[in-house]
């Protein structure tokens, strides 16, 4: 963890909390689209598929919870529209720069498997694309401005997604 240099509190990635809003909107869209235009589930409802689907969900929950614990331990915000006060590089952040967003994608895929709703697979892809453009890009610029070389070094050794 690297503490942030003194900066104004307004120095943040975004002023709007895109990730939770996108997640809720895409879950609602998946649910509505399934009722309007049901698509056939391309897989089977067998035990291995269900285990893999639930495994994605377990991994997603673990990533999200672990990332939140590490952010709180470092004394920085969990909220995507607030300024980061520390660069967190331990826990799931040691491997992934965005473990919460990755966990949310995995939860959408789990929801697809459990409900056999193909629209949730599309929602997972849409969430990944939209959160990359609307949140991750600005977040990366914010972190680079706040932490400079420490963030660039971290970015060089970690992955944005997987």
What's the layout of helices and strands?
Layout: E1 2-3, H1 18-36, H2 47-73, E2 86-87, H3 99-115, H4 119-147, H5 149-157
Antiparallel strand pairs: 1-2
CATH fold category name: Four Helix Bundle (Hemerythrin (Met), subunit A)
Rg, Cα atoms, Å: 17 Å
What composes the largest sheet? 2 strands, antiparallel
**How far is the first residue's CA from the last residue's CA?**
21 Å
Approximately what portion of the residues adopt beta-strand conformation?
Answer: under 5%
Can you identify the CATH class?
Answer: Mainly Alpha
Number of helices: 5
Biggest sheet strand order reads 1-2
Instruction: Classify the secondary structure makeup into a structural class.
Output: mainly alpha
In the residues, how many domains can be counted?
1
What does this structure look like?
The protein is an all-alpha fold. It has a single domain, classed as Four Helix Bundle (Hemerythrin (Met), subunit A), CATH 1.20.120.1630. The chain has five helices and two strands, in the order E-H-H-E-H-H-H. The protein has a two-stranded antiparallel ribbon. The longest helix has 29 residues, at 119-147. The protein starts with a strand and ends in a 5-residue tail after the last helix. The model has no long low-confidence stretch (mean pLDDT 93).
């Amino acid at each position: 963890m690297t503490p942030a240099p003194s900066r104004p509190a307004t120095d943040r990635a975004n002023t709007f909390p895109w990730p939770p809003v996108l997640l809720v909107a895409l879950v609602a869209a998946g649910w509505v689209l399934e009722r309007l235009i049901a698509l056939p589930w391309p897989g089977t409802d067998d035990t291995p598929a269900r285990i893999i689907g639930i495994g994605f969900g377990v991994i997603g929950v673990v990533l999200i919870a672990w990332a939140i614990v590490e952010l709180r331990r470092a004394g920085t915000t969990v909220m995507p529209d607030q300024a980061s006060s520390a660069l967190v590089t331990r826990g799931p952040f040691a491997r992934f720069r965005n473990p919460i967003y990755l966990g949310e994608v995995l939860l959408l895929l789990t929801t697809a498997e459990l409900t056999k709703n193909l629209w949730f697979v599309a929602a997972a892809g849409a969430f990944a694309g939209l959160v990359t453009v609307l949140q991750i890009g600005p977040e990366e610029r914010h972190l680079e401005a706040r932490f400079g070389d420490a963030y660039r070094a971290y970015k060089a050794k970690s992955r944005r997604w997987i």
